[in-house]
Amino acid sequence: MSTATHKLLKGATGEWEMVIGMEIHAQVTSNSKLFSGASTAFGGDPNTHVSLVDAAMPGMLPVINEECVSQAVRTGLGLNAKINLRSVFDRKNYFYPDLPQGYQISQYKSPVVGEGEVQLELDGGRSVTIGIERLHLEQDAGKLLHDQSPTMTYVDLNRSGVALMEIVSKPDIRDAEQAKAYVTKLRSILRYLGTCDGDMEKGSLRADVNVSVRKPGGPLGTRCEIKNMNSIAFIGQAIEYEARRQIEILEDGGSIDQETRLYDPNKGETRSMRSKEEAHDYRYFPDPDLLPLEFSQSFVDELKAKLPELPDQKKARFVADLGLSAYDASVLVAERESAEFYETVLSGLANRARDGKVAANWVINELFGRLNKESREITGSPVNAAQLAAIIDLIGEGTISGKIAKDLFEIVWQEGGDPRALVESRGMKQVTDLSAIEKVVDDIIAANPDKAAQVKDKPQSLGWFVGQVMKSSGGKANPQAVNDILKSKLGI
Amino acid sequence: MSVDAVTVRRIAHLARIAVRDDEVSHLQGELNAMLAFVEQLSEVNVEGVEPMTSVTPMEMKKRQDVVNDGEIADDIVANAPATEGHFFLVPKVVE
User: Fold this and answer.
1) Where does B1-95 show beta strands of DSSP type E?
2) Of A137, A220, A142, whose CA–CA distance to A174 is shortest?
3) Residues of B in contact with A157 (CB under 8 A)
4) How far is CA A467 from CA A470, A473, A482, A488, B34, in A?
5) Buried b / exposed e along A250-282 (16+ C-beta atoms within 10 A)
6) What are the φ and ψ backbone dihedral angles of A369, each rounded to 5 degrees?
7) Residue A275 has pLDDT above 60, yes or no
8) Distance between CA A42 and CA B81 in Å, rounded?
9) Residue A1 pLDDT more than 70?
10) Whether B66 and A31 lie within 8 Å, measured CB to CB
11) Would you say residue A189 has pLDDT above 80?
12) Domains, chain A, ranges and CATH?
């Protein structure tokens, strides 16, 4: 990898390179839990979404949810990864009140998905490939509340047993920007696939970030793991802080302790979470309650045939078929909902080939801009895709000018209604009647003889005339016609 | 393979079993006897034999993705020594 693709950190002894790997825990979208028939719904009264299996009552046996398996396979396919037709569930043993079994059912030596890769596009057209080491299925733990009482911890097992996919990257990430881009891209892929809702605030997507530093090209340093990050912005901040902390220690002649750390966003620092003597010893062994997970290649092929179009493919199609710029296409495909909105606009257009690009501009500039201003989601846009398509049709067919279209957009945003009917009822139609425009032009030239005389020497002052004509026509004159008529009348 | 007294204490700690000092040497002897017994397996040549995960050649049973369990919070916490509003209560643990 060339240094151009990533940032190096300057220390007192020269430059340092970050080496970052990530474990992402993504909650699988399913109705019921990985090994029980209890609901996965978020919230709910304490311990209501809990079966006797999830509470680890004696004698209960886990039975795997086949949809969770399908979701893991879909995700593997979306990451261009090797799908293992045979994998094994293991017990990862540890004691903690959020884990009633005393072990987490996970996959250790034989995960359901093997090596894959994710393509990242960075600013300035740079791109990097991040390797995926593996993806495995495992159970989530329950939730602990520490602030309800001074002496007791409250335990709610509603989340206990919900299926998680742990997606482990190779240590291919080289700086905070790449790390953020990686989580963003992975989240986007998961949401397109419908295998995880990607809601980081609700904890559906959490990342453990492994950070170490080294001299560029040198041997790997000792890493620290920053646990349980649930914000992309904080991931970036935590990496920057942690790398600088390590560099400082190393340059002072110290050494890095391999340890787990937590990021405190209020203080902007990471701090040690567990002391070394408590280093975990999980004593993995195959879960005797579960047979190996086996499925056929045709099961995989069927899932593959039904995969939705993923962001990279969609982007390529927008560029190739509609002539969008790579940047515009990537803005549109970044969120599944935005891409769906844009495609609904496209399907509402009278002339997709002519106006597809215009539609992209409108979605990205006018719509996103307006949504951002009011902190709204695209799913709650006051202007729906059909209305926007109608506005773009009206521009494309020359009924209204781009400027009037912005006014129309604002009216539809505020009041709703059918854009075509609004243009009629409010007299917003563009004046294409040349004689009407000519009359306005004549009036303005007659009223400004000095300026008309100067325009031959100062062609740029033509803009002033265009502005006057547009103003006097209430913005409804066809700008191209105005330009043409002005030029001929002014003799330039 | 054999275990020393430190390992016995560590295994007990990991399993959250309280072991008194005067029990350690007895447990060490028992564990080592078990390990020696299992060790006999290493005499068998298993070259090319796949590890057996089940004694019966059957496929893992799978469930449909339907919610047909839960909503039994009373039962879930029925045997807990301390509860409040259907939460389990445990002595405070904070990392």
Assistant:
1) 62-63, 83-84, 87-91
2) A220
3) 76, 88
4) 5, 10, 10, 17, 95
5) beeeeebeeebbbbeeeeeebeebeeeeeeeee
6) -60, -45
7) no
8) 27
9) no
10) yes
11) yes
12) 3-303 (no CATH), 309-425 (no CATH), 434-490 (1.10.10.410)
Q: Which of A148, A154, A278, A287 to mutate to test the interface with B (most CBs of B within 10 A)?
A: A154
Residues of B with CB under 8 A from a CB of A: 10, 14, 16, 53-54, 58-73, 75-77, 82, 84-95
CB-based contact A428:A422 (threshold 8 Å) = yes
> What pLDDT is stored for residue A256 in this prediction?
95
Give Dmax (Cα) for chain A: 99
For residue A163, the chain B residue with the least C-alpha distance is B65
Judge: B89–A283 Cβ closer than 8 Å, yes or no: no
Which candidate in A47, A162, A281 is best for mutational testing of the B interface (most B CBs within 10 A)? A47
Contact B90 A153 (CB under 8 A): yes
pLDDT confidence tier of residue A358, bands split at 50, 70 and 90: very high
User: ipTM of this model?
Assistant: 0.89
Nearest chain B CA: its distance from A17 CA (Å): 31
**DSSP H helical ranges for A212-285:** 232-251
Task: Classify each residue of A481-492 as buried b or exposed e, where b means 16 or more C-beta atoms within 10 Å of its C-beta.
Answer: bbeebbeeebee
**Cβ–Cβ gap A31/B76 under 8 Å:** no
With contact defined as beta carbons under 8 Å apart, do A381 and A341 qualify? yes
Distance from CA of B3 to the nearest CA of A (A): 16
User: What integer pLDDT is reported at residue A225 of this predicted model?
Assistant: 95
Chain A residues with CB inside 8 Å of B72's CB? 50-52
Q: Which of A50-54, A378-382, A395-399, B84-88 has the lowest mean pLDDT?
A: A395-399
Alpha helices in A351-459 (DSSP H): 352-361, 368-373, 385-396, 402-415, 419-425, 434-447, 449-454
CB pair distance less than 8 Å for B87 and A145: yes
The proportion of chain A whose per-residue pLDDT surpasses 90, expressed as a percent, equals 78
Calculate the average pLDDT of chain A. Answer: 93
> Is the predicted pLDDT of residue A4 greater than 80, yes or no?
no
